[in-house]
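Q: I have 690 residues here and want to know how they pack in 3D. Can you give me a structure?
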Amino acid sequence: MSQLLDMERVSVEFATGRGALQAIRDVSFSIEAGETVCLVGESGSGKTVTSKAVMRLIDDENGKISSGTIKLDGVEIVGLPQQALRSLRGKKMAMVFQEPMAAFDPVFTIGRQIVETIQRHDRRTTASEAKRRAVYLLRRVGIPEPELRLKQYPNELSGGMLQRAMIAMALSCQPELLIADEPTTALDVTIQAQILQLLQELKDEFNMAILLITHDLGIAAEIADRVVVMYAGQVVEQAATEELFAEPHHPYTQGLLQSITTMDSDRSKRLYTIPGSIPSLSDLPGGCRFHPRCPYATEQCASEAPALLSRDGRQAACWHVDRVIASVTATAPTPLQAEPISSPAVDTVDVDSTSEPALAFAGVSRSSAEVLFEVRHLTKHYPYGRSLFPGTKKSIQAVEDVSFTIRKGETFGLVGESGSGKSTLGRVLLHLEKPTSGSVRFEGRELGALSGARLREERKHMQMIFQDPYGSVDPRWKVGDIIGEPFAVHGGLNAGGKKEAVLELLRLVGLSSNAYDRYPHEFSGGQRQRIGIARAIALRPKFVLADEAVSALDVSVQAQIVNLLQELRQRLDLTFLFIGHGLNVVRYVSDRIGVMYLGKLVEIAPSEQLFRRPAHHYTKALIASIPVPVPDRQRQFAAIQGEIPSPANPPSGCRFRTRCPAATARCAEEQPEFREIAPDHLVACHDPVG
């Protein structure tokens, strides 16, 4: 293989009101032709800035490459005129962004934008030739009816289909290097598996090199030839994938790997977490940038920055590589502790210092436990369009005839692809939206029969943690006011009592008291989620709905929040409905799990039983799509074919039959009964798995 991309000691600066801010420093790595390299690290580590530097997209964001060289197939990118740069983009290198809607112009059709890209880089290609190639590419990336999709606008395609269309546009000029920036982060596990399988196939077909940016180490284990680990704007380690996962040389890499929640994670123990959070680029610590969070840190680490040195064909920037290696091979489950030093304080404090080292998360999965929520034949439809005839108005069947219970003290997990109705079910459960039909009882009281005042009073006992902690708060309010809002709404405390209660809540969720007078934008994503959790538990509710509460977080921060939720559940005797598409995390936190598909519950079972012995073919396919963060256990991506149908026009009979490998004629004609096949294990399938 020949070297395609070579970055040598690249630094990038952005102009700000306070002067130049260095986003990455002395970043060096290379990519061979046909090789897949993964950039991994927490948010704020510099991964995206590095990828944009290769494309020189930072020029559009008030940034510049302040030093270093970037060579693409021997051509120096740094200092290249824009005209020459435009000829390289698309033809030599192309980029797939995390958010596909941001890559397409919403006022033009998909076809027009792909055709325009092809003709811009090859003016000899006619419009009809470009259109034929666009159809081929859409078909090649797995989009059905490509001729029809060419005429559609971006908003008419689902998330997974739009991501495929963006990949097709990126491949339209057959680039030699494809840069994919978190291309699967916002996608369901099934669509993620389809996209990863597609990238692997296209890499082989077009002999491309891929630079994949991800914070999911399971993806890196399955798709990467080499992994480059970044922290606070610097490369701290790089190695072949098998070597890095088997024996990390940097404490940060070791911490990331230990933070992963897997199918084998012990539910009776806390998840491993890296203490603290990634530092701000405007306030970096001296010496090794990781030393305030490192269990091996010494005085040398605080005063001297280690160089990125080669060792046995791999690189690491750490003074204590030998100690890290020793801890990996040692029998002790935790790293060897180095001499402690006084580190800069972080906002997160250890809220578990007085509790047991291992928490029992057994919950109350016994069927005899007292019921908190009882849901019977719950349905939620959203009418749309107009009809000339009464009773024929069309509707989106978001939730259809759902029945289940949530028991006091348990965590009930809810999984399924986007569009399956999980979030709608959660909102209807809390009566944030009124059901079309059916019954929701909370502690035996029918919520639909309560008056507005009574329902508001009842809501003190039912709170919600949102997926986007920043979008769920007023950015103009200080944290003290945000957390104290429930007290203002429901009364009962004077100003002094409210402040005392808020400070206690901050301590409970692991934030220091100085957060009281700060604003949300001053906190990291994980810290903002802690603020949202503090607000949710302010009134000491009986029930908390966590709607994708950890889905957008890095693996290390995700582990911190999961541990916090588990601890609060025990301390405050909470009951949770935990909605998520990270199946390993849902398995870890849940006592029982419900699986939804196209508005209907298709399976409910105790957590371990569901994952070890799934009965529904959809559940089995979801589990098979989970990336495995162990390179030597790589497998073929077990992607479910096709996408979830429209809830406005669901299939007859079993709704999963159009994608089910075991579907029969009976499945098309007869809706399966939701029945018990084992104690506490229910499934809606004519022919359950094994």
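Q: Anything worth noting?
A: Confidence is low (pLDDT under 50) at residues 331-367. Residues 249-329 form one domain.
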